[in-house]
Amino acid sequence: MRRTLPALALLLVCLTALAQDKPAAEGVITGRLLDQTAKPMPGVRLRARIVRYTEGHAVLADVSLGSTTTNDRGDYRLFGLPAGEYYLIIGVVRETRATSFYYPGTQDLADAEVIRLKKGSEFRAADFRLPALLTSGAKITGVINSEFELRQPPSLSGASVRSPDMEAYLALVKAYNEAKTASVGALIPRDKRVMETNPFALEVPNTAPDRNRNFQLQNVPNGAYDLVFVDRSANVQSEPISIDVRNKDLLDLPVRIRRVEVTGQISLKGNATAMPLAAITVELQPVHRFYTLPPVTVGSAGGFTMSNLSSGLYALVLSGLPPDAYVADVRVGGRSVKPAEFVLPGGKQEFEIVLDPSGASIDGVAEDGSKQAVAGAQVVLIPASLNQGDKSPYRIAIADNAGAFLLRGLPPGEYRVLAWEPILATGDISEELVRQNQDRGETVRLSSGGREHVNPRVNQRIE
Asked: Residue 100 is inside which H or E element, if any?
C-alpha cells in the first residue's frame, strides 16, 4: 500500500500539469478605459453582454462573470466568458442622468463594435475612449388620436427611458405588462442587428378626455426607431412612425390608432384541384408580439371576417394547411404584401389569400466534415430573394437521429441550404446569422411539385 502512494502522487502531478497546459474553455477580454482627455478612468463598472437570439431578434443578455471594475490605471479584465459575440458597455452619469456608452466609445448601439470571442481565447481590445461630446438623450412629444377608448396608465411619475439602469427599466416594463390596462409606448430599433431589449417600453402620461392623448418621452438614446403605442386592454396598436433621434428633440408627433374591419377570401391557384378549406385558421398578429389575437376559422367556401382590429404592423399566419400547400400570394386592398410583415391600414380592408397545393419539397442528411450524419442538426432553407430585402421567413427543420430531414410545402424558386450543429435552439437562428453564413450553403432550385435531395455540411458557431 505504501509503495502505491508515491505512484499515485506522481500520476496526480502529471495530470495536473496536463490540465494546466490545456487551454481554458472560457475566454478573456482585456483593455483600458479612457475619458475624453485620454486619461485612465479607474473604478468604473464595465459589462460584457453576449448576443442571444430570441424569436429571430439579436438581443443583448448578461452572462456570469460578465462585469468588472477598472483598476487605478483604467485597465479591465473579464474572464470566464463563453464563446460568442459581445458588446462592452459602461454607464456614465452626467448632471444626474445615466448614459450608456458602447465600445469603442459611442452612445449609439448601432455604431458599436462587436467582439467575437473564440473558445478559450483572449481578446485584447483597443482603448475604450469616451467621445468629447456627451449627450443626455432627446425629448419626444406628440398626440395620440385613437378611434378606440384607451385606458389611462398607472401613475409612474418621473419614469422615462433610462440607460444603463436596465434593472429599473425592466421593472417599469414588467409593471406595464402586469397591469395590462394601460396605454404604453414602444420604441422598436430599426437596426435589428442587436437590441438592448425588445421592445423598449416608454411612458405615456395621463390622457385628455377628448381621446387626444398627449405624450412625452424623456432621455431617449440616439438611434433610429419605429414609435408605436399599444393598449393591451383593448388589444390595439398604432401605426408605426419612423423617427431618427440624433441629439435633437422631436416635438408634436401625430400618432394614429384607427379601426379596421377585414373581409377575406381564400382561393386556390390556377386549375388546382379542390382542397378542404374549412380546416384552415387565419391569424393576424402584431409583428412585435405586443399582444395575441385569436385565430378565426375559414368557412367551407374559403371566406372569413375579422372585426375590431386596429391599424398597424402585422404578420399573417395560416394553420391547418395540407403539408404540400403554401401561400402563393396575399393581397390587401388589391395590393400584394409579404405575409411576414406588412402595414394594415385603417377602414374596411379586403384580403385575398391564394394557396398553391403543389409545393416543392427537399430532403437529405446533415453531415459533418467527415461525411458523418449529425443527429439533431438544424437545417435552414434561405430564399434567394432574402438578398433583395424579402421579409419571407426562412424555413427550419431539425434532423432526426440519423441526420435526416424533410421540408415540404415550399414555393418554387432558388434557395440556399445551411445546417448548424444541434447546440442552438430553433429561435437562436437570426436573420443576421443567416446573412453572415449564407455563402457557405449549397444552392438548390425547386420546381412546382418537385423534390430535391441535398446533404448540407454542418457549420459551427464561434469556437
From this structure: strand 97-102
The alpha carbon of residue 242 and the mean position of all alpha carbons in its chain are separated, in whole angstroms, by 18
* pLDDT tens sequence across 259-285: 999 999 999 887 666 778 888 999 999
Concatenated DSSP letters of 144-174: EEESSPPPPPP--TT----SS-HHHHHHHHH
| Distant-in-sequence contacts of 236-239, Cβ < 8 A, 24+ apart | 236/146, 236/148, 236/150, 236/309, 236/310, 236/312, 237/286, 237/290, 237/310, 237/312, 237/313, 238/144, 238/146, 238/310, 238/311, 238/312, 239/311, 239/312, 239/313, 239/343, 239/345, 239/346
Question: Using CA atoms in the order 321, 232, 162, 241, what is the torsion angle rounded to 10 degrees?
Answer: 70
CB 142 within 8 A of CB 202: no
Q: For residue 68, what is its C-alpha cell?
A: 468588472
Cα 137 to Cα 110: distance, rounded to the nearest angstrom: 15
Quick one: DSSP state of residue 181? S
**Nearby residues of 14 by Cβ (< 8 Å), 6 or more positions away:** none
Q: How far is CA 147 from CA 236, 255, 346, in A?
A: 10, 11, 10
Q: Are 309 and 261 in contact (CB under 8 A)?
A: yes
In sequence order, the β-bridge partners of residue 140 are 217, 250
Q: Which residues of the chain have pLDDT under 50?
A: 1-2, 4-5, 8, 11-24, 95-97, 153-166, 169, 176, 179-181, 198-211, 388-389, 424-427, 462-463
Name the nearest CA neighbour of 261 among 149, 350, 340.
Answer: 350
Which candidate, 129, 184, 174, places its Cα nearest to that of 151? 184
User: From the centroid of its chain, how far is CA 433?
Assistant: 11
**Does 286 sit behind a cis peptide bond, omega within 30 degrees of 0 on the bond before it?**
no
Backbone angles phi, psi at 30, to 5 degrees: -125, 160
In this prediction the pTM is 0.69
Alpha-carbon gap, residue 359 to 366, rounded angstroms: 22
| Grid cell locating 402 | 440519423
Q: Domains in the chain, please, with CATH?
A: 19-129 (2.60.40.10), 138-257 (2.60.40), 259-356 (2.60.40.10), 360-459 (2.60.40.1120)
Residue 121 burial (CB count, 10 A): 17
pLDDT, tens digit, 9 for 90 and up, residues 84-103: 889 999 876 554 445 678 89
Residue 294, beta-bridge partner list: none
